[in-house]
Give the backbone structure.
Amino acid sequence: MHFFTSFKNLLNVDSIPADQQNSRENFLVREGNQVHKALIYIEAFYGFFFIFVTWYLGYYYQMALNAALFVFSCLAYIIQDKGFAFYSKIFNLSQLILIIGLMYYFPASPYGIHINDSVLVFYIPVSVGTLIAFQGKENKYGYLLSGIILLVALFLIITDFHYMSDHQAPLLSSVSYDLLFNIIGAAVATFVEVAYILALNNRLNESLSKANHELDNFVYIVSHDLRSPLLLTKGLLDISKLKINEQKEVLKYLDLAGKSINNLDDIIKEILAYSRNSRTGLLHEWFDLKTIIGEIKDGLEIKDSPSFSFVEEYKGDTRIYSDKGRLHTILRNLITNAVKYRKKETPGAFVKLDFNRSGNQFTITVSDNGQGIANESMSKVFDMFYRATTAAPGTGLGLYICKEMLEKMRASFHLDSTEGHGTSFTFTLEQAPRVVSA
């Protein structure tokens, strides 16, 4: 499961670090960094695998070099993971050029047969990987290093200083296993690189299709959901002018206009929340979950339901290290929805929040005994601008934003609902990497 999660993260073209703008150049650099991380995985695997292959064949010099390849790949990963992606690429590709050259140059038998000549074929996937690892404003380094790789390979072949010309090399009457291993290895490495690039391209196409679909929906919401409250407000104000001498009527229309403006404000806030989520990275900080819940409770409008109750149950330490802003938005949307779609005519309406912490993981459930969601709507409630019911005002953005934010926070979540009986939304989050608390 962890492997598939890591691979999915490698293909995440929507992930944007908090300190980077969403520009074309930064996007290309980020994708180049993703490609390089995938290349490091390939190198580490081949270095580790060929340690045993060369040990079995008795090529102890190459075994040491493969061990060095594995160690240096791990170092390159650590450097990139610390936030120095460019230096990681320079370090990693330089050690690859050197190790492959050493594998070719020194090992030779007394007869002059190069034990590992065919290792030069690995310069092909390394050259390809170099071009695709350096993207955007870094592409000049990709061209430079790729050219150096090809020149080094050409120099080693043409000069061939280590070949012992005073001995006649015997004809090989059997299969050259070195040639076989290296050509197959280089072919597989190239295939994996190309397959990864195609998968990344498909993921990018999916992201673009999603963006186009959301843009179409946004055009609809601007032309309909944003324009309608404005026209309604304008109409109410025009009527108020005509009835300027009828104070009660004017106040009624002004009250309706205020509600229309509030609805418009809610739509704009949710659109801004979605935009910020897609354009900014995660921002972790220490906070107490109870503080967030208290702020959300203070903003609830439940004056028309005196029998309504809000229940809280906490198990474990509520002080957590996570993205406070996103978690606040998620809980506000879930709790507000539960309150909005409660059964106002039924006594005993409630919204319940359960918090359960286990080690570095915590689970939050928001449940209610409200109107619930129809079965035919369950598959659509996370769609942008979809509204399962018109029983209460809404934008159709709430659950969509929750889904997008939870996915960005790498949380697992589940929605369970029965029409007429209530809804339960559960999500589980791993606390961000442990830091020293102030």
